[in-house]
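Support request, please re-run this one:
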Amino acid sequence: MSSQQPEADPADRLPSYGGQAVIEGVMMRGTRVCATAVRAPDGTIVIKTAPLSGLYRGRMPRIPFLRGLLALVDALVLGMRSLAFSAGVQAGEAVSSAPMAASMIVSLAAGVALFFLIPAGAGYLAERVWGWSGLAANATEGVIRLGLLLGYVGAIGILPEVRRVYAYHGAEHKTIHAFEARAELDPAVIAAYPREHPRCGTAFLLTVVVFSVVLFSLLGPMALLPRLLSRILLIPVLASLAYEYIRLTGRWAGTFWGRLLAGPNLAIQRLTTREPDPAMMEVAVAAFQAMRQGEQAIS
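Re-run finished. Output below.
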């Protein structure tokens, strides 16, 4: 699949476009439209395009820190809808988003318990049972949280189904890289671009974990219940800080400091992306082109 060289201006390029890999497909989100392209069992590419709600087009996406919360909601809501569409294409029939919403709520609760509450409990034990200082206990909590994150994304990458999702993830990044470089959106062309991208959602998760080490260390010693509650209640704060950090490093991507700050985030993407094949890149290009066409039709 080939296309004309994309028309873009600097205002479009950062941080307007993003995406997510889904089952045998890619979701691309712009400023006004979201498009999902999925490879059907018969080999065709099925595309669904939908306008974003007024919430995404209002003032909130331009308000520092508040837009980080919107990005979190964006990833959850749009991701759930895209997964439901992708699953429906694979099954050959419409799939209700309600079961997926319930599954996502359960998964979020499990994720909070695994990545926030269990490390917090370990820090509490280190502080109260083993007599460690508050700083050492909080640092240990952060190291455990980081280890759990890296171990989890690395372990599930062994599964063949997840490896394919990771490959579509790489195709998504390559497509956005090519667009931002004003290159032709052709699989043969975008294959040369990196599969890591500084504005990746994985980078968001790693930044949240790193910032949690700093923020939670400032809170000092706590009893167990306040400690656990603080980890949950401060997740929106961490999300807001992480979003602004990634936005900043994205704008500085061409500078020495930008590359230095984005280095850890790009490194973790070696775990969450794989080299896509041409068919996967074709799907990513189809999603991106559908999103761009939808944006241009609205503007």
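The chain has one domain: 10-298. Residues 1-15 have pLDDT under 50 and may be disordered.
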